[in-house]
Specification:
disordered N terminus; MTMR12_PTP; alpha+beta; 9-stranded antiparallel β-sheet; disordered C terminus; PH-domain like
Length: 747
């Protein structure tokens, strides 16, 4: 709640009365600079972090209809973050802020997290970039984690305004060199700091032994082998140093086309079938080169397709599935639903919620990804076929689809250690271009595509539908998505293992130089205290198989604001054969003859899919077996915790799923206490569950978007009908119908 140092004004929605409010006229602010300076809070810098520019007497606003409320303080820009230092930060530091990040504060924005910067000139909002001739009176920053910050510069000295605005624009938007990222400054300065062994948190897949262990775990070592032919990246800089290929494949084939056209193993299921991926051969026009490629792929194909014992189905994700452009366009529209500037804007867009949500196509893209994964699972599980995923570089949609298949089929990947190992294997070591896809260097907006965020959203659908099957929580997924933009971890800041390894050496001369010790994001103790980490672990996780009660519908919850689209005909997907007429004719010529016997029509494929899917849904869920999502109609929902957490109007005090979880934990505690008395012993896990339950009960009324919601705006409904609401009736009628329209959250 806002206490001392608050600039307030009349109008707007009533807020809870603070203990003390100082009403300060704008002309008085400069006269109080001495007092402000005395109360300034200290700027905390990480090792290697340097202050670049700052401005004082900046008002951090909370927009509330026609009035402005806020706290004044300093706005600073370092080579790591933009930070606002409120002059009475203690007023906001209350017990409700339970989930604190030790690296990024509530009012901190890492430079990589900045999405768009706007300036307000004479009440008009304009995008800011490059050199400015005129400086704004207000700065608005939209973040990639969907926070929105408003900074009023009207009372700041002109020279400070120029410095801070120019500095923020330059350090967040100007193209960068890889070596100039804060990641390297931090790693160099923190070289003597002790870090935990990353192998305590995940299998890193940076040694041959790691791959052998994974082969043994999945029983794939009978048909596949780990190879070190690319050790030192002498064959291909795109591939990892170690990977797995079919046993019959001669290792000398790998260098032929720099790793292209080689089937690389992802995972083996219990039936012995495997999921493979392959990067396509470069397109050639020369007939001689085409013939060489055809002969090469013919030989490769014979090693993986040996009917009746080994049958392979090819899924060409480059032509038969989503495009990166579709993902980028859909998310660009989707995120605008949550970058809300004020209460008025929220209520004005609320009446158009369904049409805006549907027009973004983001939920439909999630549905298509989950459906594609189920189709592949049907081939592996029901048809006993190997599946070969084909993509230009096998580093985007291959990572997405193969990871989803493993999460659904392998219960190990639903544990936290297993999930983190999966991300390491398929995304980090698998060569997903995080540097480009997150646009960390600000070199090309066209390359920025949220493929990994799409994967996390798909996993969230599974976590939401089947909570007992996952050891981690939705909060874990949310903070993992936030960690994409924290440049003290190396995990998401390189395009390939080769790029990481070649840039880890410290610049300088002398024999004393040693490789940089880069942190991994999987060590959550860097960001969170032990108490906060309990919110990443699911206390309802079913660790061992139990007797099935057959209550499949137990995980369905009544929802308030419709976070999913109503039951409608989903958009038709492109025809799904192994090839379409538009498919690249080179691949069709090279592989078409071999696979033609296996091609089903799209109608047959649809029938097989439906039969397999309905059969699974008719059985009770096995949380330690195959786990499929519900993908029809409103089953695909908006990930409320991530997307709505910064919008106070979208919160339900004392409601939402967190209220249900809190009550469940209380019941579990009671059962455990009784069990403890009976068995007269104490289980270590009980302490963790009790810790989580106590954390949930420390606030009298939890928000439905706990633990992130901070209630920065206090409006819970429009005081007066806005233009969009007037059509619904007069103000009295609107109040009566409030519950009908104001449906926020998901219980």
């Amino acid at each position: 709640m806002l206490g001392k140092g608050v600039v307030g004004g009349g109008g707007g929605t009533k807020a809870p009365k603070p203990s003390f409010v100082s009403y300060v006229r704008p002309e008085e602010i400069h006269t109080n600079e001495k007092e402000v300076t005395e109360k300034e809070v200290t700027l905390h810098l990480l090792p290697g972090e340097q202050l670049l520019c700052e401005a004082s007497t900046v008002l951090k606003c909370v927009q509330e209809d026609s009035c402005q409320r806020g706290i004044y303080g300093r706005l600073v820009c370092t080579d790591f973050k933009i930070a606002f230092l409120g002059d009475d930060e203690s007023a906001l530091d209350n017990d409700e802020t339970q989930f604190k990040n030790k690296v990024i504060g509530e009012n901190d924005i890492t430079l990589h997290c900045v999405d768009q910067i706007y300036g307000v000139f004479d009440e008009k909002k304009k995008t800011l970039f490059g050199q400015l001739k005129k400086y704004p009176e207000k700065l608005i920053i939209h973040c990639k984690d969907l926070r929105v910050f408003h900074f009023c510069l009207r009372y700041t000295k002109e020279e400070e305004v120029k410095r801070i605005v120019s500095g923020i624009i330059h350090h967040t938007q100007a193209p960068k060199l890889l070596k100039r990222l804060f990641l390297f400054s931090y790693a160099t300065a923190a070289q003597n700091h002790t870090a935990t062994d990353p192998k305590n948190h995940a299998v890193m897949f940076d040694t041959l032994q790691d791959w052998c262990w994974e082969l043994e775990r999945t029983k794939g070592n009978m048909k596949y082998k780990a190879v070190s032919v690319n050790e030192g990246y002498k064959v291909c800089e795109r591939l990892p140093a170690y990977f797995v290929v079919p046993t019959p494949l001669p290792e000398e084939d790998v260098p032929r086309f720099h790793g292209h056209g080689i089937p690389i193993w992802c995972w083996s299921c219990h039936s012995g079938c495997a999921l493979l991926k392959m990067s396509a051969l470069p397109k050639e026009q020369d007939d001689g080169v085409l013939q060489i490629q055809k002969n090469f792929l013919d030989g490769i194909y014979k090693t993986i397709h040996r009917p009746p014992y080994e049958i392979v189905k090819t899924e060409d994700l480059s032509s038969n599935f989503l495009s990166l452009q579709e993902i980028q366009t859909a998310y660009s529209k989707f995120k605008q639903l949550f970058l809300i500037d004020n209460s008025t804007e929220f209520w004005d867009t609320d009446i158009k919620w369904f049409s805006l949500l549907e027009s973004s196509s983001w939920l439909d893209i999630i549905r298509r990804c989950l459906k594609k994964a189920i189709e592949i699972i049907e081939c592996l599980e029901a048809q006993n076929m190997n599946v070969l995923l084909l993509e230009e570089n096998a580093s985007d949609l291959c990572c997405l689809v193969s990871s989803l298949v493993q999460v659904m089929m392998d219960p190990h990947c639903r544990t936290r250690f297993g999930f983190q190992s999966l991300v390491q294997k398929e995304w980090i070591v698998g060569g997903h271009c995080f540097l480009d896809r997150c646009n960390h260097l600000r070199q090309s907006d066209k390359e920025e595509v949220p493929v990994f965020l799409l994967f996390l959203d798909c996993v969230w659908q599974l976590v939401h539908q089947h909570p007992p099957a996952f050891e981690f929580t939705e909060t874990y997924l949310t903070v993992l998505s936030d960690s994409l933009y924290i440049p003290i971890f190396s995990t998401f800041f390189f395009n390939s293992p080769h790029q990481k390894d070649t840039n880890m050496g410290r610049e300088g001369q002398g024999a004393q130089s040693k490789p940089l010790n880069l942190l991994t994001v999987w060590d959550w103790s860097v960001q969170f205290e032990p108490k906060a980490q309990t919110l990443l672990k699911n206390p309802l996780y079913v660790e061992k198989p139990k007797l099935d009660k057959g209550q499949r519908k137990g995980t369905h919850f009544k929802h308030q604001r419709q976070l999913s689209l109503p039951l409608t005909q989903s958009k038709s997907s492109p025809k799904r054969g192994f090839f379409r007429e538009e498919t690249d004719h080179l691949i069709k010529n090279l592989l078409g003859k071999r696979i033609s016997k296996l091609i089903n029509s799209s109608e047959e494929l649809q029938d097989n899919f439906r039969e397999f899917y309905d059969s699974w849904r008719s059985k009770p869920p096995n949380y330690h077996g195959l786990l499929l999502p519900h993908i029809e109609g409103p089953e695909i929902k908006v990930w409320a915790q991530r997307y709505l957490r910064w919008i106070p109007e979208a919160q339900i005090l004392g409601g939402g799923r967190v209220a249900t979880l809190s009550k469940l934990l209380e019941t579990m505690e009671e059962v455990q206490r009784l069990q403890e008395k009976i068995e007269e012993r104490h289980h270590s896990q009980e302490a963790l569950q009790a810790e989580a339950a106590s954390l949930l009960r420390t606030s009298a009324r939890l928000s439905s978007l706990f633990p992130f919601a901070l209630l920065q705006r206090h409006s819970s409904k429009p005081v007066l009908p806005t233009s969009g609401w007037k059509a619904l009736g007069d103000e009295e009628d609107l109040a009566k119908r409030e519950d009908e329209f104001v449906d926020l959250g998901d219980v």
